[in-house]
Amino acid sequence: MILLISIFISISLLTETIGVYFRLLGSINNKPTTGYSIHVRVATLGRFFTFLSAPSLGYIVDSGSSSKDIALIGSITFFLVFICCFEFFF
Fold first, then answer.
1. Of 23, 11, 16, 14, whose CA–CA distance to 44 is shortest?
2. I need a surface site. Which of 5, 29, 70, 90 has the fewest CB within 10 A?
3. Which among 82, 52, 58 has a CA at the least distance from the CA of 70?
């Protein structure tokens, strides 16, 4: 469950980042409305994964998981984001 939540949160963060990147590309290419439109579409996909992960994270907190387990979710999430960004930029 911890790994699944981490994957969902990292996908959400990555899709939001990609959406902002498309907005920048639209601005650079002098097509800000196209960039904004793509940003909104991609961000909606990211919010879907937030919708999946947030209640699951709340359940883990409410079920009495240790703070170590909850911190592990954040660590795994940012490790996955780092790996994906590293693959994208290098």
1. 16
2. 90
3. 58
Q: How far apart are CA 3 and CA 60, in angstroms?
A: 12
Average pLDDT rounded to a whole number, residues 34-53: 90
The phi, psi pair for 60, rounded to 5°, reads -65, -40
Residue 60 near residue 70 (C-beta atoms within 8 A): yes
For the residues 49-74, what does the mean pLDDT come to?
A: 91
Question: Is residue 90 predicted with pLDDT exceeding 80?
Answer: no
Q: Say if CB 53 and CB 12 are below 8 A apart.
A: yes
Nearest to 73 by CA among 56, 49, 90, 87: 56
69 touches 2 (CB < 8 A): yes
Predicted confidence (pLDDT) at residue 28 exceeds the cutoff of 80: yes
Q: Where are the domains of the chain?
A: 2-89
Task: Flag whether pLDDT at 89 surpasses 80.
Answer: no
